[in-house]
Amino acid sequence: MTLTPERVAELTGGKLAAPRENISITGAAPLEKAGPGDLSFLSDPRNAGVAAGSAAGCLIAGLGDESALKEFRGALILVENPKHAFAAALAALEKGLRPLKARMQHSSSIVAITAKLGKNIYIGPMAVIEDEAVIADGAYIDAQCFVGVKAKIGRDTRLYPGVKVMDNCEIGERCILHAGAVIGSDGYGYASSGGAHKKIPQLGRVIVGSDVEIGANSTLDRAALEATVIEDGTKIDNLVHIAHNVRIGKNCLIIAQSGLAGSASIGDSVIIAGQAAVSDHVNVGNNTVVMGKTAVISDLGPNQIVFGHLARPRGQAMRIEALLSKLPEMHTAIRKIKKHLGLSGHSDF
Questions:
Q1: Catalytic-role residue among 244, 281, 331, 340
Q2: Which fold has domain 110-306?
Q3: Domain range summary for the chain, segments of one domain joined by +
Q4: Is 214 helix (H, G, I), strand (E, B) or coil?
């Protein structure tokens, strides 16, 4: 696909501050590597000097950056949020750079007679659609995908190759599921007796809202009895494990290699960073950030940023955790003692 600066301005809701004639945008690149046919963007005004010397054919910048870009030779588009606007323009370019195949059902796919297929859908090679599954209008089911009995795939949702959506699970509209994602694998539930572990059948399902993205090889386990729920707008990275009965709110970011144990409840707009872990039955409040490699073992309220975990013998670790909360008051007491002893000139504890 080829875009003009005028079309980019229209797509981004921006102001075309420095129009240039005969510019055709066919790609995108960073400021330092962009050429005359590329679109680029300036998100940090401190890089305005680099942007001004860029060979990009079209540049998206902030509304207050125009004066610093007088030397830029290409078309200039000014917006409130350059990164957000750049993403909108990339979405249009992607249609030409990574085009989807013509909507059809491949001859090697297997679709049950009782499955319901919407309009303008694609079902790729060796994909399997089971009985009473529902595929809504505009959905794109790539090669070797599996959609189980009574599963539902929402309008304009895309399943990359090898995605598995198991029986009775539901995916909302405009979702993206990357290669190898598994939705509805059995939850990790066992009844232990006499050293043996008997499997507890997992009879629930997974419900994924709309505008959710799930990364490659991530797994969302079905609930034991009700539903594992991912609400609208949440983005899940690659290699994430979501256990049974977990509920994740709206617009959360769940980063690679993190894990949420059974029945954890995550509020809206929460960030769970890489390799972090949330224990079973723990609640995390709205807008809280769990930093990388942090283990959350008790409830967290809203609007917090938490970090840190070291493995120690349990008894020792619990004593240390109990003492940590008293450190500020201990520090104050020690300073008072040092002052009383005439040691206040020495370095602090």
A1: 244
A2: UDP N-Acetylglucosamine Acyltransferase; domain 1 (2.160.10)
A3: 5-97, 110-306, 314-349
A4: strand
pLDDT tens digits for 286-334?
Answer: 999 999 999 999 999 999 999 987 667 778 878 888 888 889 998 899 8
DSSP strands (E only) in 107-173: 110-111, 116-117, 122-123, 128-129, 134-135, 140-141, 146-147, 152-153, 158-159, 164-165, 170-171
**The residue type at 186:** D
pLDDT tens per residue, range 78-114:
999 999 999 999 999 998 888 888 899 999 999 999 9
pTM, to two decimals? 0.86
Say which residues have a Cβ less than 8 Å from residue 3's Cβ, sequence separation at least 6. Answer: 11, 24, 25, 26, 39, 89, 92, 93
Give the integer Cα–Cα distance in Å for 173 and 137.
10
**184/243 Cα distance (integer angstroms):** 10
Spatial contact of 9 and 101, defined as CB atoms under 8 Å apart: no
Query: What residue type is 267 in one-letter code?
Result: G
Task: Please state at what angle helix 5-12 crosses helix 82-97, rounded to 10 degrees.
Answer: 120
* CATH for 5-97, options being 3.10.620.30, 3.40.50.620, 3.30.559.10, 3.40.1390.10: 3.40.1390.10
Task: Name, in order, each residue with C-beta under 8 angstroms of 246's C-beta and a sequence gap of 6 or more.
Answer: 221, 228, 229, 260, 261, 262, 263, 264, 265, 266
Number of helices (H), then strands (E), belonging to the chain: the values are: 5, 36
Residue 244: active-site member: yes
List, for residues 4-38, the tens digit of each pLDDT value.
Answer: 999 999 999 999 998 888 899 999 999 999 999 99
Pair 285, 301: CB distance under 8 Å? yes
- The whole-number pLDDT of residue 346 equals 55
> Do residues 208 and 170 touch, judged by C-beta distance below 8 A?
yes
